[in-house]
Task: structure prediction
Amino acid sequence: MNRLLFRAADFLSRPPGFYAMVVAMVACTLLVPFGLTYALSVAAIIITGVVLIQGYRDTAAIHAKLDEIVIALHQTRNDVVGLEYAEPHEIKSKLTELEMEAGRLAAGESVRDAMNEAGAAVGGGSLG
Result:
């Protein structure tokens, strides 16, 4: 079911899908005088769902990409390019991987900083 929803959200978030939704909304609006307001309500709910699904994917991918930038100031990798098109579990997996790497790098930098401070205190200069 998730795959179907994400494919629908992907289609509906692009110009052809948007035009299809506009046509569907116009058709539903034309049905209102005949007492078919239910169809218009359903269309509004579907559009809201599509917007929420697409927004979730984009936001999760942006967070992963920003994490990558923070981690890789010295070296960049291209494996997060296009992450917004991945399945949600792939995005979450990549985000978890990047957070673990950031934790390892932060721990390594704090050890290096402590060594530099100790060297400065003892020898009057830095180790680096």
In short: The chain has a mean pLDDT of 75. Helices lie at 2-12, 15-31, 37-71, 88-123. Residues 15 and 112 are 52 Å apart (CA to CA).
